[in-house]
Amino acid sequence: MSPRRKLIDLKSYGQTGKDLDAFRVELSLRLMPLIFSFESIKELQYEALKHIKPINKSLQNNPSSIHKGITKVVDHFFGNRKKVQVHRINSDGTMTPVGKKHDEQEDSEEMFQRWVSGFSQIPNHHLNYLKPQVEEDLKEINKLIKFYEGLEEVKDFLVTRKVRPFHDTRTILDFYSRCQEERQKILDYYLEGVYERAIAKSRAHIFPGLGLQSLDFWKDYPYELGRHPYGRALDYREIDHVSHRLSEVPVRFNGELKILYQENKEQFYKEYFKLRPLEKIFEGMCSNFEYLPMTNNRSHIFEELRAVFKKKQWLAFYALALPQVEGVFAEMVKSANPRSGVITKALSDKVRSVRPDYELSDVYFDYYEYELPKQRNSFSHTGVVQNAKLKAYDTLIDLEHILSVYASLENPLVAIHKTLRNRNLKDFTDFKGFAKYFNLLNALPKEHKSKPDLKIALDNFNQNFLREACSIEGIVRNAEANIDFGFSDLWSRCKSSIPEFQNIVSWRAINKPKLQKLLLEEKFKENSKDFFQFNDEEVSIAISMKIFFYGVENHIYKGHRPDELKRAFQTWEDNKSFVKWLIDFKSLIPELLD
Question: Percent helix, strand and coil across the chain, each rounded to 5?
C-alpha cells in the first residue's frame, strides 16, 4: 500500500501564476490514481477538495458545500471578483441593463475547472467512447493479418525467412509487415495511449472560445485505420489507383469520379477531360518540366509523346510514356542524392527512396511502387496491353502527376531551379530571403555544385540578378543596422530567462564546457529550453544573419568586400561570435534539435 500523501496546504501558496501552477501539479498528483473512477464533475471536485487544507475540514459531499469550498480556493488565487452589469447600448447613446449581473470573469466553478483542477469533463466518459472503436480496429487488423498468414507467400517466408525475388511476393510481404506494425501501434494505444487521450480530451481549455480543440479529432485514433480513408492502405488488394488522378479536380467531384473509375473507366475519362481539358494537361506538364533539374534531356521525348497522343496512336504512346514514369523517379532520386545506388535498381526501389521527400507519399505512392511495376513487367514481357486507349489515358495522368510531385519536392536542387527560373524580386527583399537562398546553396551535394551548367546559371543569377537587380548594398546596410540592437536585446532576454546568467556581464564568460556543466542541472536546462522556444524567431533571425553575411561575401562578392560595405562587414565580424555561441548553446539541448 502506497503511503498517503499529506494534505495540500492552501495557505502555503501565494497568488502568482507560478504558485497556481505548482498547486495544480500537486493537486493533479492526488487525482490521477482515481481519475477514471469519477462519473461526474461533482465527484471529481469533491475528491479534489478533500486533499486541500483547510477546505477539507468543513467539506461535505453536497453541491452547496462543494461550491463553497471551490469559491474559497478560487478566491485565494484570484481575489474577490467584483460583479459587473452587462448593458446594451441604445441608438440614442443611452444604456439599458441586460439580464442578471455576471461575474467579471467567470463563476467560481468554471474558474476552478479551468485554472485549478484543469478538468472540465470526466475522462471516463471519453474513455468509454474511444476504447470500443480501438477494440474494433484491433480485431480488424488481426483479421487481416490472419488473411495474410494464410497466403502461400507469407507461409513460405515464415518458414524460410527468405523473400522470393518476385514482385507480387514482395508486395504481399510489404503489406503483411505494414499490418504487423499497425497492430503494434493499435495495441500500444489500447494499453496506454487511449487513457492519455481521454485525459487530454477532458482537460479544460484556457481559451475555450477559439474552438481549437475541434481540430485535433484525428488524435483520437492515431494509426492508419483511424485515419481512413486518408491513411496508408493495409490490404494490398485495395491499392488506390485513382486518388492521384483527382488531385487537380474540384473536391466536389471526387466521390462520384472514384466510383466511376472502378465501374466504367471510359466514362470516367469522358467526364474527367471535361473538367481538365487535354491541352491544359499537356501545358501543365510542359510548365513543370521547365522548372525541373533533368540530368537527361527528356524534352524531345515529351514532344514526341504529345505528337503521338494527338495522332491517337495509343499503343505507341503507352510504350513510350510508361518508361518515362520510372525515368522521372530516377531524376528525383538523383536530385536528392546523386550518389544513391538506387538509381540502377527497380522502379519499386526508386519510389521507396523518394517517399521520405514527399509528404503525400502515403496517399499516392503505393500505386507507383506496387501496381505500376506490375504493368510494366507484363508489357515488357508480352508486348500486349488490353484497351491501349484507356491505358494511354492512365499513363498520361500518371506522368503529369509525377512531374508535379517532382516539382513540389523540398530538396535543395529542385528549390534552386525554381528560384533560378522565377527570378522573383519579392523573394529577396531582406536579408532573410537571401539567407534562405544561400542555405539552399550550402545544402547542395558537391556533385550538383560541380556541374558546369549549374555553376554558370548560378553565377549569372548571383551577379546579374542578386547583385544588380536586388539592391544588395542596401540590404547589407539594413542587416548591419539590426546587428547591434538585435544581438544586445537577445542577450538581455537570455539573461532575464535564465537566472544563472543574470549577474554575468557578457556571454563570453560562459563557454561551451561551462554550458555543458550547467545543463546537467534540470532547472537550468528547462529555463534554457524556455528561452529558445519563446525567442525562436529572434534566434532564427540571428542565424539567418550569419548565413546572409557568409553568402554575400562568398557567392556575390567572392571574397572581395567593396570599400563602401567594409564597415558593415566589420560590424558583422565583431558580433558573429555571439551567433556561434547561440548555435552551440542550442545544439547542446537535444530536445530542441530538429
Answer: 75, 5, 25
